[in-house]
Amino acid sequence: MKLSFVIPCYNEEKNVQPMYKAVKDDLENCGFDYEIIFVNDGSSDGTLKELKKLLDGEIPVKIIDFSRNFGKESAMYAGLEESGGEYITIIDGDLQQRPSLALEMVSFLEKEKEYDCVAAFQNERGESKTLTFFKNRFYKLINRVTDTEFVQGASDFRTFRRPMAQSILEMKEYFRFSKGLFSWVGYKTYFIPYKAEERANGSSKWSFKKLFSYALDGIFSFSTTPLRFASVAGIITSLLSLIYLIVVIVQKLVFGIPVKGYATIVVLILLLGGMQLFALGIIGEYIARIYIQTKNRPIYIAKKIYKNFED
Ligand code: UDP
Ligand code: MG
Questions:
Q1: Both 302 and 282 in a single domain?
Q2: Whole-number Cα distances in Å, 251 to 14, 246, 247, 254
Q3: Which of 94, 135, 213, 217 to mutate to test the pocket of ligand 1 (most atoms within 8 A of CB)?
Q4: Separation of alpha carbons 3 and 9, rounded Å
Q5: Ligand 2 midpoint to CA 259 (Å)
Q6: What local confidence, expressed as pLDDT, does residue 259 receive?
Q7: Which CATH number is 124's domain given?
Q8: Within this chain, do residues 35 and 130 fall inside the same structural domain, yes or no?
Q9: Closest Cα to residue 286, out of 223, 233, 229, 231?
Q10: What is the chain's percent helix, strand, coil content, to nearest 5?
Q11: 12 lines ligand 1 (CB under 6 A)
């Protein structure tokens, strides 16, 4: 098998058939064999029903049916595990990304042997200014606090060689932040710009709140720098309080000024209490991750795998 498409689908009932057709049309004269691996990520609509219809077609199709919604990251992992191609393309199931671009990615990798991955990145997105502002901030921050390189606008839409897929599969962490994982495993990646189409049907599953928590996940998964905040803040407050202590002693003993302090004490207690809780919260984020990871639960649970070919 030359190429495996991995397509995560969550409530995409209206997009399944058009997506299948798009792949089929775009790869009609490609001259190599390919398979499509759909992951039904616990959809609550008729996605599975639509997917099963594809088993009657002539293209090799595999459907991994999750027992519930595990998220796109888990869906991509499952798809990679089941893929058998020399190249693997991860592509969304909502027609925002064109399968024809995957074809270009494959020909690029065929020609340029020193590259292992071609990733699509969006240099212009039809997003609000506020969201762009926060995204810019996020990428600045995460690139500062981690050694892994995070490329702004890089999408999961990418094609890579089998060894890279193997390396990604070896990373069995529960909190999966694919943008980081793709970059962490190394390998030479070529970025090509693309413009995402409008979503064909249904709606995006990303709200600002979800994006924010995803961003935090990225930072906590790839960096321990936030932990240093507690140490640094602790050292600074200790030094400041030492200075203040000397000031108070000198005021009292040398100048005999009575030290008034109600407001100061209240402010200091609140400030220090707040800082302590904040630091505890950061430590808590890491402990929560350790706790969940040590349970070693599977990244996904597949109820059933359907396929119309033998691999
Ligand atoms: N997706 C998924 N599980 C989820 C959320 C999304 O498999 O929990 C799939 C979804 O069906 C789509 C792709 O991931 O094929 C991208 O999702 P979406 O279009 O919501 O994200 P966006 O394009 O807005 O970044
Ligand atoms: Mg989309």
A1: no
A2: 76, 8, 6, 6
A3: 94
A4: 19
A5: 63
A6: 67
A7: 3.90.550.10
A8: yes
A9: 223
A10: 50, 15, 35
A11: yes
Q: What is the pLDDT along the chain (311 residues), one digit of tens a residue?
A: 889 999 999 999 999 999 999 999 998 888 889 999 999 999 999 999 999 999 998 899 999 999 999 989 999 999 999 999 999 999 999 888 899 999 999 999 999 999 999 999 887 766 778 888 888 888 898 888 888 888 888 889 999 999 999 999 999 888 888 888 998 998 999 999 888 777 777 777 777 888 888 888 888 888 888 888 888 888 888 888 888 888 888 888 888 777 677 777 877 888 888 888 888 888 998 999 899 889 989 999 999 999 988 87
272/302 same-domain check: no
204 in contact with ligand 1, CB cutoff 6 A: yes
CB of 71 shorter than 6 A to ligand 1: yes
Atom of ligand 1 nearest to the CA of 10: 11
C-beta of residue 87 within 8 angstroms of C-beta of residue 309: no
Tell me, what amino acid is at 27? L
**Cα 231 vs. chain centroid, distance in angstroms?**
29
Ligand 1 close to Cβ of residue 206 (< 6 A): yes
Residue 286 counted as domain residue: yes
- Is residue 149 in a domain? yes
123 and 35 in a common domain: yes
Does residue 13's CB lie within 6 angstroms of at least one atom of ligand 1?
no
Query: Is 219 within the bounds of a domain?
Result: no
Are 92 and 158 within one domain? yes
Q: Which ligand has its closest atom nearest to the C-alpha of 204?
A: 1
Verify whether ligand 1 is closer than 6 Å to residue 116 (CB atom). no
Ligand 1 atom index nearest CA of 11: 11
The answer to the question of residue 217 being in a domain is: no
Tell me the residue range of the domain where 135 lies.
3-207+298-307
Number of independent structural domains in the chain: 2
Cα–Cα distance, 90 to 99 (Å, whole number): 10
Is 303 in the same domain as 188? yes
103 and 136 fall within a common domain: yes
Same domain, 157 and 194: yes
